[in-house]
Amino acid sequence: MQSDEYAPFYAGYVALVPEPEVLPALEAQLASFPAEMAPFLGELETYRYAPGKWSVRQVVGHLTDSERIFGYRALRIARADRTPLPGYDEDHFVAHADFERVPLRELLDEWVLCRRANLALFRRFDADALVRRGEANGSPVSARALLRVLVGHPRHHLRVLESRYRPRV
Fold it and tell me: What pTM was estimated for this model as a whole?
């Protein structure tokens, strides 16, 4: 994949996906992500490591919102839709989602459902669909770059959760 297939903002997510075959990594996260989130169930679900930072529930809600948005972008681009797609303000979305009232287990179940839908979508894309490019958030992006972002984005947030949210023993 070429670095001009995605905005520089996504480079960190893409770098977290060294696998040459990305679909198996997308599928593996169906089991690994909820398992990696297990230590945060219970008392840590509403924990914030600093004022103004998201809670664990809000992080997972954000990942689910992003799963939907990145999948939708990939669908439009893979289908050769040339319409520029808007960005989204993740802080605004989280502020208006009320994730705090939803137990983490339910948020994880919802993420899994969204991931299953995106996995089915990407399995149907042929090689031409994957390399198609469109515009999202004012920058060029390919469907295959969005596939890597879908894998790298949860990996990024898991690293943050592990380093800033999980208590040290």
Answer: 0.96
Contacts 24+ apart (CB under 8 A), 52-58: 53/164, 54/94, 55/99, 55/100, 56/104, 56/161, 56/165, 57/99, 57/100, 57/102, 57/103, 57/104, 57/107, 58/94, 58/97, 58/99, 58/100
Picking from 26, 60, 61, 31, the residue whose alpha carbon sits closest to that of residue 144 is 26
Mean pLDDT over the full length of the chain: 96
- Classify domain 3-165 by CATH architecture: Up-down Bundle (1.20)
Mean of the pLDDT values across residues 17-31?
A: 97
